[in-house]
Amino acid sequence: MKKLSLILVLSAVGIVQAETRPLPPIINNSTYASGAAYSSRATSNQPMLEMLGCVERLQTELQELRGLVEQQNYEITHLKQRQNNIYADIDARLQRIEMGRSATTTNSQRSTQGNLAIPAAQRKAAIEAAKPKPKVKTTATEKADFDKAFASVKNSHYQQAIKLFKAFLQDYPAGKYTDNATFWLASVYSVVKDKAAAKKNFAAVFTQFPKSEKAATAMLKLADIYLAENNTAQAKQLYTRISTDYPSSTSAHMAEKKLQSMRQ
User: What pTM was computed for the model?
Assistant: First the structure.
């Protein structure tokens, strides 16, 4: 009986000690090897994601550039067609002018024969009356005449522009817009392929009006004509002169590029 009581007491003491023993700590596996490997994989994928983003942006930019190229090709085609139309229009106008001159000459001959029967005094009075009255020249009329001639250039009426600019230069040989009129007359001659007249008038711009805002551009245009004619010596001389006479102009920068291409 005593032994049984002793065994029960010892069992109760073991149970109490077992209940009071602390539990082992909870292990967080994310801080060990498997967690570290996951973090390493995420870090290694970041450059790949950035590269994919760059590829997408490049594809977008490539599509935009293709669109620009297509638009420029369309505009170039349109400009070529317009230029062909301009040349055809110029040829038609020249033919009409030549036909008109022939008809005028015939009518003039007939008129002269008819006038022989009129007394000399009456013929002289009629001639004087038929002469155009001198035009009153003012700053306002000069501006109006220049604008009228320049409008013909903008509307591609080149033969009319030549006629108006030549009349302008006769009326205002030293006017406010004389240098501009000379420059545009040379430009129109260049368009209609009258190279001799174009060279003469481009040279007149920087020779007669060296301080004009068109002087450097006129010199560059003249140099370009010489280069197109394979007169490289004359072209090189003018390109070099632009850099010397008008060093801060846009034309000087373009002339320097032309000289560099000629050296290659």
Answer: 0.50
